[in-house]
Amino acid sequence: MLKLKKAAIAGTLESSDVQVSIAPNEEGGRKIELQSVVKIQFGESILATVHRVLDEFDVRDAIVRLNDKGAIDIVIMSRMQAAICRAAEISYDWAKEDPHGQH
Fold it and tell me: What is the pTM of this model?
């Protein structure tokens, strides 16, 4: 299980982006708040992506707030990854996300 050490933010409030803030949840569990200009159409999909990234990092105790301005799935994933790494104070192998990158 990955433990978050501090609060962190990734992303912007620009159109087609998402700002993700994440912090440790001392009470335990996941608390996710979503504000989105496309929440009615894509809210469930956005939340599924958030949970998938949290699962990939094995983050169980977190407060996640998203302010989405119409970001596509890969942007949501990358902002989540960056916020988690910043909050946990770990590095991430971004090259593994690039199918054309060198490993």
Answer: 0.91
